From TrEMBL:
Keywords: Disulfide bond, Glycoprotein, Immunoglobulin domain, Membrane, Repeat, Signal, Transmembrane, Transmembrane helix. The keyword Signal applies. Residues 582-603, 615-632 have a biased composition (Basic and acidic residues). InterPro entries: CD80_C2-set (IPR013162), Ig-like_dom (IPR007110), Ig-like_dom_sf (IPR036179), Ig-like_fold (IPR013783), Ig_sub (IPR003599), Ig_sub2 (IPR003598), Ig_V-set (IPR013106), Surface_Rcpt/Adhesion_Mol (IPR051116). It is found in: Membrane. Residues 581-632 are annotated as: Disordered. This is Ig-like domain-containing protein. Its main location: membrane. GO terms for molecular function: laminin receptor activity. It is a single-pass type I membrane protein. It comes from Xenopus laevis (African clawed frog). Residues 1-19 form the signal peptide.
Amino acid sequence: MNSLILLSLCLLSWRGSWGQLDVAQQMKAQVGETINLNCNSYKDGESNNKTLEWLSMQKKAEKVIYHRGPDGVSVKDPELGQRMSVDEHFRLEITNIRVQDEMKFICKAEEPSTKEIWENTVQLLVFKKPEPPEIVITEDAFRSTDYISELGSCASVNGYPVPNITWYKNDMPLRDAQDKVEISSSVTQESSGLFTVKSTLSVPLREDDDKAYIYCEVSYLSSSGHHMMESERKNITVLYPSRNVRLFQSFPTGPVKEGDNVELKCEGDGTNSLDITYSRKDEDDSLGEGPSVILEKVTRSSSGIYECTGMDFENSDHLMKAEIELRVHFLDEPVFSQMSPIIVHPGDQLSVSCEANSSAEAETMWKHKGHIMSRNSFLTLSQMNHATSGKYTCIVTLPSVPGLSVSKELEITVKGKPELSVSSKSIYVQENTIVTVTCKALGHPKSTITWSANGTTSEKTEGPEKTSELSFKVTSELLGIGVIICKATNKMGSSEEEIQLFHSSTPVFSTTSSDLFTSPVSENNTGSGNTIPSVPKTDVHRAGSRGVLIVVVIICILLLAILGAVLYFLYKKGHIPCGRSGKQDITKPSEKEQIVVEMKPDSPAEESVLLPGEQETKSPGDQGEKYMDLRN
């Protein structure tokens, strides 16, 4: 113990101010980089008489690569050449690092006066990232066997130092000599000094290795630590014989209906190729061979049991069979309980059923003019009229079989005399004007429409409905008759409607009956069941009279208000004498000076209106006038 302490003291005293003993430092660099190595023996301000040297040591052989002394500077290493330089602080700079530069560099200083030597050693470590690993599979498919066979190889090139390769199967690492795994590796150093590593994997493959994937991983060192890269993943195909086969419907994926193309496919539970034939059970005829067979435009008769027979090429003695039941759904055309067309009469009741033969439970719906009339197989109509005539569609679907639907139309005709409707029951017209009116007849058989007035007519027919339009000139004779008759006739009878004409003193701007005034009487249209509102002619004049009357009343009230204000102002100024004996009460004017405002009521019974061309006189007591007495 005492001897160790003594030795330590001796070493400390020997290092002094120049002589120092340091453990070698490490410097890491990537290939292609530039590094700077410091020489701790040189300090600013120290004597320039020292002898300084940079040396390289490789395989324990030292070589001076730079020298500076009393005689000047000399560079002696041709390998570093222009890539090496030393600055004023005695730092050694090396550019474009190569793997050959991995060695020790020694900075050495000597004091001429004392001959004392100081050294500083730097170990340079060089690194190069390898290329990503590439994996190659030996064969496209492998036989299932217990024998070891070469599976593939993995290579990584241009790395430094030597990288390492690890194999994986389904993310599990494989080790050499474990579970009959054999891994062999080789390392090759290129002329550049970089390394190429190649690894070969050999394993026995079994049935459960089919579709497995393998890949390799290369791990390497760099100046920043440990790293790794993975290759792409490769799937393995392992061939082994089938023990059983299965037959399934690959298309369509859902229920099958008549007219579909059906694909049946037979597969084995192995990976070896099979010789497959298809047939219908208990029938000798073959439907086809190969991986699948297509049954085109199947019908209900195609329903039944189908089978496939599979034989392994490597074992012709082993036959395998599988079956499948094919069910083809169908839906026949609907059948009505009564033949179309069905003829009924107004007021009748009708019930018709719609049935369709199908392979599954069906749903039925009746539609008429886009509206749903029934959600079952029965269509029931009561109190029928011409409006219920037309085509009714029965739609039958199979909810369990998407896309399977049929439909059929039933025509129902209500036979009876025409039902009439006119554009207006009454109109106001002026003499010598052209007026257009419309009459519609609904019925079966189709009707013939006639008018009681002469004019221009146009007709159009839509189904059971016929429309006639009459344009006529208003004459004094027509005004004398006061009515136009529209008459519709078919084999079942006739109907007619009247349009009353009223003379109008107000100019008529529209020549169509829909824009004219209606008659003063409200009538029910027996043809359509609609009520046509009417406005009396006198009401039109009254509406105008009321407006004028309101304006007159407002003006009178304003004048009274102004007069009252003037009188009150004169009274305050004393211009109007006031006294109990001689003062005249301004609120009680004489009978001749009474200010009267005529108030005409809104009630038609109390209003007197003279229509153009009429003469009427009433006694003052019958005119229903009212007065406002300002005295009260």
